[in-house]
Amino acid sequence: MYVNRIVSSFFFNIYQVKDNFFYILGLTLISISLMIGMAGYLSYVTAYQLKTVRILLGVIGFLFLTFGFLQSFNIIKNLKKYFNPFSYLISTKLILSVLAITILFSIFLISFFDSNYGGDAFMYHLPFAARIWNIITPEEYSFEYYTEHRFLGFPLFANWLQGLFWKLFQKPEATNLVSYLSLLTIISYLKLYLKIPFYMASLSLLAIPMVHMHAARSYIDLPGNIAVSILILTTYCLYINKNSLKSKNLLIIFISATIAANTKFQLIPVVFIVLCFVLFKIKVIFLENKKNFPKLFRSVTLCLLASLIVFFTPIKNTVIYSNPFYPVEIKVAEFVLNNKETPPDFMHENIRKLSPYLRWGRSILEIDVFDDRRPWPWTLGMDFISWDEEKFGLGGYFGSYVIFNFLLFIYLCWKNYSLEAKVASSVMALMTVITPLFPQSYELRYYMYWMIVFVSLNSFLTCQLVQKSSQKVINPKNITLIATFFVMTFIIKTKFFFTIPEFASFNKQIMREDIVDQNILRSINNGDNVCIVNKAPHTFLYSSHFYSPNKYSVKAEFNIDLNEEECKGRKILKN
User: Fold this and answer.
1) Is the confidence at residue 88, as pLDDT, over 50?
2) When you count CB atoms within 10 A of the terminal residue's CB, does the N or C end of the chain come out lower?
3) Are 122 and 181 in contact (CB under 8 A)?
């Protein structure tokens, strides 16, 4: 009789497993892992290049499967009872919060004490920041011909902030703080505005490689995309809360839109589209009562005036250069606007032949994007290989993390299909339809707002689900534990480079032979006017500003054969 009861109880619990979310999710991930393996076996893709994804999906699936079984057999509940006497000593939420603070503090040390790596920082961002604040004058260092025109036309707000920090702290490393503070801004926004727990907001974002890597560097992709993310999320709040048309919300929309549109050209169309939805919502709210028509008129007028500030850069370029995106070539009805350079066109033929959606999908899922020549699986620009190679620029969101968030999003919307979930579904659908159509969308660093908003909406919907139901499994703590697994995987696979400081200062960097040719430096005398050729992206590091008390003038050029006149009257130095 006793044995029969045990057997009956066992089979009853086995039957109960079929309704367990973690069991179903585990089987799904393992199935996907096996399907990817089969795709490699059948030579649809190169098998070894998906090895990491298969292993991660398999391991995560197995953990979910195990957790589902343990939960169904009440083993977890019994373990909780066993350890309950010690619960006052330690809390999972406390551990996660301490971990988040530790990682954020460590990244701060990188941003303040470590110099940059990556071409764009030395090619554009630091030189632009120094020129804006007159830290290094045009007489001391002159840009390349095309770089000079980029300085004249590109949005420069983030570079202005970088120069401000350089000026305040008297060290070029401080330019990194702009990206770091932008990360703290989005975390604070999620915590204070959307009421997402600090540990969840922090670790879920740090699990995105592109966010984690850019958080301590002088690239401007992260500040711009965080501004766009805040703009999108605040607009989302307008649509889920009828009483959200307050001055504070409109001010957040105005500030975030202004920062984004004046930081990167690629984000201007995104800002314009989002603001159209904001304007539509304002119109709908005011037209609910005909008496509000005068208010609507004043609001529209105010919005139009505000747009002059939001779109300051393209308006300024239109007035001065007759091209809102100067110096980049723009065609309007076959008419070519004033320009100095054509849009980048180094896409590999295998990438070019894919539709924008397949191209972007391959990149976000990280299908065949890794290359052993890179020092780590992920880099700031997914570079370290030639521009015209197939894998250049692809990846950066952690494919397995994207899949996890996709499955979580479906579950959250299915479990609690509230107004919040419906609007969130619309937001994700619109972003997913529109984002791949933008130029170079497969280079995810330019449009990382998609993943930032995706993760933020999942965090918000998780908190909403806990508030509105008795759901105990899908909660901020458990979701953050999974995100933490991705964070730690990223940290280990990148050999701690983006997380733990090396305390490698700028002064140490300019002493490195592989960055600054010391023979060229020794050939420059006080008072010289030199033209340094073919040393991009590190030509800026030859400026006399960094070698006091020497005083000389440097003109940078990419190729003397193409711009011989640019070096006229100067001593030419090259390899």
Assistant:
1) no
2) N
3) no
